[in-house]
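Hi there,

I know you've been waiting on this one. I reran it after we fixed the sequence typo, so this is the corrected version. Both the input and the resulting structure follow.
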Amino acid sequence: MPAKILVVDDEPDLKLLIQQKFRRQIRDGRYDFLFAHNGVEALAQLDANPNVDLVLSDINMPEMDGLTLLTKLPASPNQLKAVMVSAYGDLQNIRTAMNRGAFDFVTKPIDFEDLEVTIQKTVDELMKIRDGLKARSELLAIRRELEVARTIQQSILPRDFGPKGPTGGVSIAAEMQAANEVGGDFYDFFMIDGERLGVVVGDVAGKGVPAAIYMSLSRTLLRATAQLGLDAGECLRHANRTLCSEGDAGLFVTTVYVIVNTKTGAIDYSTGGHFPPYLARANGTVESLPLAGGMVLGIESEARYESGHATLESGDLMFLYSDGVTEAANAADEFYGDDRLGEALASVAGSDEKSAVGTLVKSVHDFAAGYSQSDDITLVAVRRR
C-alpha cells in the first residue's frame, strides 16, 4: 500500500510542484498525495481519509495555522506523523511545533531532495512502529491463547482429593505449579478396580506448548493402559511402546507409576527414568524406595520395566515428585536438593496428606526466596489412613 501523505499549504503552486517532483514515486505506487489549503480543509480531508500516514503542513496559513492544526490532529491507530514547513530562521514556531508533537520539519524555500529524505525517514519510522504494534498484538493474542491452554491443562488434573477405596483406606493430595504459562509436568490418580488406586507423576522433556501437548498424550495413554489392570512395570512397557509408535516428536517423558492397595497398603511401583517414591513413616523415618523400572518413555520401543514393592503402614506417607522440586534454585545458584527434601519430608511425618503437600511446596518457595521458577513443581502425597 502506498504511503498516504496530506500536504497542507496555501501556496497555489505547491500541488503541481509536489506532483512533478514525486511523479516517479506516485507512478510506482509508493506515495499517494492529498492536498488542503489550510487547517480547516486538512481536518476535513483527515475525516474523509482516516488512513492518512503523514501530514506535511505549513505553519503560517489562513483560517487555521499549522500549529493549531497540530493540536487538533485526530488520534490515529496508524500512528499519524506530522512534518512541519516553516521559513528558515523561524526557530520559535519550529520549536513550538516539535513540542506539540511534530515528528520533523523542513524549511522554506523547500529543498525537494531534503523533503524526499524527510518523507522517507518518516514513513520508515511509521513502518517500524506499526511492525512493533503488530508484533505486540500478536504476542498478546498468543498470551491469551496460552492462558486458555493453562486453564485447560489445569482443569484436566484431578482434584477429587481425599479418601480413596471402598473403606477410605488411603487418601491423596497433590499440587502442580507450572514454571511457564503451560507446563510439561503432570500428575494423575484413579481407581483401577474396587481396591487398587493408580497414581502417576510425569515430566515431559521440554517446555511450552509442545511439551503440554505431549503431556496430555502421555497422561491419557498411561491412564488408559493402567485400566488394563497390569502390574506397574508392564503398564509402563505397554505405554512406552505406544508412545514410540506415535512417531518421532523429539520429546520423551519420565514417569513414576504406583499402584496402592487401599485395603492392605501394598505398593507396586515402576519408574521410567524418574525418581522412585519417598516414604515418610509415621515414626519419623524417611526412606527412598529402591530404584525399579527402566529408561524414559518414548525413546526405545522394546524397553523393559521392572516393578518394585513396598507397604504403607498406618499413618505412613508416600511422596511422588518431579525434578522441579529438587532442582529449584535460589539467587546463589544453589539447588534445593535431596538433603533438604529429606529434611522436609521428616518434618511432615505423621501429618495429613494435604498439610504435608502444602508444607513441602512452601519449603521449596522459601528456599528459592522469590528467585524465578525454572521448572514445573509437582508433588503428590498418599497417606495410609
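Quick highlight: The chain has a mean pLDDT of 89.

Best,
R. S.
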